[in-house]
Amino acid sequence: MHLNNIFSLDNRTCTDVIYGGYLLSYSRDISDALNDQIWEQSRCSSCINITFHFPDKPTYKMLDQTQIWEDKYLNFQQCVDNVTAYDEWAFRNGTTICQTCKDPLENLFNYFWKIYIDPDTDFCVDVETIMNDTMHLWNDVWKCADTKDRKKDRPLMIITLIVLIIFTLLFYSASYIQGGGRQRNFILYSGMPVVEERARLLSTSASGSDLAVVNFQRSNRIRAMSHKEEPLNPDEDQLTQYRERCAGHVEKLKEILDECNDRVNSRTETEETCHQEMMDYIHELDHCVGDAQSVQGPEITITQIFDFAFADLVGSL
């Protein structure tokens, strides 16, 4: 509070003067920090070495690799100056420069590239910038890029294309051989005629007469295989007769399954039709088991009845 009431010659309070001097003391630290950061990120120590001699002036010395690069660059620059000294059009056209200064540029670039790819040595940003500008002039402005280098990409592209074609042919050939040599046909289902059995099963507008015909055909097929047409022999063991009869039904079920597979593969009937037909026959097998239980009592199980039947079926498979 006491310093706020005391003013300096420029009509500022002592508090402002002290605070301004406090901020000014940081300006040197900030400047040194920025300079050090720029110096490190620019890799200036890779090109030049500075030796300080307080209070005398510091001495500057370029590193050997930088000095060699500078000599090669000045040699290339002198070549360009000699070509364009008396012909300003030569600098824009570049044809004479490309023919005359090709060797100095290759010498310069080879040395720079050898240092650039070496992990133990490095160049500063100034050298890299000068080289980028030089190559831009040579390739883009003077159009001196070697046509041989451009032609080298063409065989590589052709070889890559041939390899891709070979792998594609091998892939499809292996798929064809693995598929048994069958030719794959692409089917446009929207252009195929509607299968009648499938239409009857899926369409809600199917007539009752059509459904009656299908059910009648299926009932005749199942009735022909039904065990109820022949009565059991009362002189023989009824359980054995039921086992043999159910074994016959299992064989018939296997025949229906094989027949349905053939029909589905040949597209004469849909999978839904065969599935429904097999379900109906399984119901007939259920009736066979129910009749056996009614004769021998509820203690007989389905497993006991089908032991003999499925043993023969598994043996045939």
From TrEMBL:
Domain called Ubiquinol-cytochrome C reductase hinge: residue spans: 237-289
Alphabetical list of Pfam families matching this protein: OSTMP1, UCR_hinge
Transmembrane regions: 156-177
Cell location: Mitochondrion inner membrane
Cellular-component GO terms for this entry: cytosol; mitochondrial inner membrane
Keywords: Electron transport, Membrane, Mitochondrion, Mitochondrion inner membrane, Respiratory chain, Transmembrane, Transmembrane helix, Transport
Domain of life: Eukaryota
Major site of localization recorded for this protein: mitochondrion
Cited Gene3D superfamilies: Ubiquinol-cytochrome C reductase hinge domain
UniProt xrefs under InterPro entries: Osteopetrosis-assoc_TM_1 (IPR019172), Ubol_cytC_Rdtase_hinge_dom (IPR023184), Ubol_cytC_Rdtase_hinge_dom_sf (IPR036811)
Protein name listed in UniProt: Ubiquinol-cytochrome C reductase hinge domain-containing protein
Taxonomic source organism: Diploscapter pachys
